[in-house]
Amino acid sequence: MANTTTSVEAPAAPAETETWDQERAARKDTREGWLFCAPYLVLFVVFVIFPAVWGLWISLHRYDFTLPNKPFIGLKNYTSLIDGSSPWSDVFWESLRNTLLFSVLSVPLLLVLPLAIAMVLNQKFAGRNLFRAIYFAPYVLGVAVIAVLWRYLLDTNVGLVNYYLGKNIPWLTDVPWAWVSIVGVTVWWTLGFNCAIYLAALQGVPRSLYEAAAMDGANRWQEFRNVTLPGIRSVLVFIVSTTIISSMNMFGQSFLMTNGGPGNETRTAIMQISDTGLRQFDSGMGSAMSMIFMFFLVLISGSVFWLTSRDSDAKSQKKSKAKATA
Amino acid sequence: MTTLTPDHKTPQQMTPEQIRAIPDQDGGPGEGRRRPWVFYTLLGFLTLVFIAPLVYMASTSFKTPEDAISTVPQWFPAHPTLQAYERVLNDPSTPVGRWFLNSMVAATANALLAVTTATLAGYSLARIPFKGRKVLLVLILSTLFLPPVVLLIPNYLTLNYIGWLDTLLAVIVPGAAGAFGVFFMRQFFVGLPKELEESAFLDGASRWQAFYRILLPLARPAIATLLLLTFLTNWNDFLWPIYTLFSPEQQTLPAGLSTLQSANSVRYDLLMAGAMISAVPVLIIYAFTQRFIVEGIASAGMKE
Is some CB atom of chain B closer than 8 A to the CB atom of A92? Predict the structure, then answer.
């Protein structure tokens, strides 16, 4: 674009060939740039961009893909969910509440426990990489394996857990136990993921900062508060948002361990959306649900982003104030 | 040590807390301290928590149906047998061998497709100054935040129209459209020095030659990591295959495990055998490449 303006302003012959060359090079870059992207873009357009738009369109229809007639009904799918006139309404909002409950229960554990373990692993001792590898191991197994495995271990009658506790707890068939189980298994399964990211971040905190803290006579808590936490801040924001998003998208654990039960107590949003849209052939309603779900997800991640960026401002202000008074 | 006067502040006179706070070579505090037994006990306990369930899964897969539901846990099967494996591998309604093959084919094909397209696009978006690049980059990266469930129903309908439902193509192709690979490869190519291609261009190399002969060999570690991560993600994917693959002989292992569980909900010997067949290949790959996998994920987290 810049080249075209120069060619207009510079009529001299040598400059003209130069800009002509530049223009040709820029055109070549543009052709090659798009060519290199083309194979991915075919996939991207067909399976990401088009469905994202089409999903919105589907949500405005009574869309049963097995029927020839798919009448346009405007926002009726949305309004009937919101005012409760749809038969899906109750179970959908319940599934959203369940998803939120699961996130509220699991996210704090998945933020704190991996950090504690990463801080232990960040010290120098024999076999440290081995321990890191072991704690990460469950994460490489899929949700199907871990859910089938834990359904066995948590079996009320023949499960290991009840045997060693000497109890008869209905881990998967009654609340609140079903939530305790699902949250516990999720923490067991995904803790290593956050732990690995924390550990990499902790190793990037410059040792000179710890030395300075030691010189200032900082105790262990002060060191954590003023050196470790600020040092891993950007990674912390990443972990908080990915953990919230993956918790909100929980599906397999409920599907395989409790099948959403007892009743609909552990049915999650993803379970409800896929069931409505693909099993019960109400794709319009399912799409409307997924849009509402996305709205809440955007709302939550937006506020997390806002909170963390504001918090850091406040903290750095406080810090500089403390420095000034010291 | 003793040559210094007592009122000089030296490292030797630091309090234990101060010594503890000195980080070691890797940035962590506490070099050279002897770890108390409490420390190793804690690590050992955690190891037990993570390993014991997997050991018990292995043990039960070699049990008889009766031993698998014995109320007293058998860490070693009382009557070791392969009958659970024989049964799940030979039952036509739960062809675990076929699922294994399907998973292998699907995960390999998906990883190759995703990594090839992502490497080309990642290179282009990092190093070719083309018209529309910024807009395209923002568009692609913003879909990282799109919840996958929004695409679930429309993509299902698309596959229904083009006749890919209940075929392995359903779990190979759409999954390769995700933006993570492009993001990952772009981050890698952005970090390489610009002179690499410029000198190649001066020698008369074309864009493709510069990419293929100079940048691609340098990208091998990143490509290997992405291949691994993509393979594992596809191997473990659960939601999409359970809805798009329905015939027993078309399923992948995770979807199959769900079928196996509904068919034999308390035959834990069979379920553990099926789970072992899904888990062991992944654990073997993990044992040899855990550094790549863990560090690949950690670095993706750091880059964000």
Answer: no
For position A238, what pLDDT does the model report?
Answer: 86
**For residues B291 and A104, what is the distance between their CA atoms, to the nearest angstrom?**
32
- Determine whether the interchain pair A44/B140 forms a contact, defined as Cβ–Cβ distance below 8 Å: yes
- Delineate the domains of chain B, giving CATH numbers in brackets: 38-81 (no CATH), 96-299 (1.10.3720.10)
Q: pTM for the complete prediction? A: 0.85
| ipTM of the prediction | 0.84
pLDDT tops 60 at residue B25: no
Q: Do A297 and B274 touch (CB under 8 A)?
A: no
Residue window 141-180, chain A: list those with CB within 8 Å of chain B: 141-145, 148-153, 155, 157-158, 160, 163
Q: Does A305 touch chain B (CB under 8 A)?
A: no
**Number of Cβ within a 10 Å radius of residue B205:** 16
CB contact under 8 A, A142 and B56: no
Beta strand residue intervals within B5-130, DSSP E: none
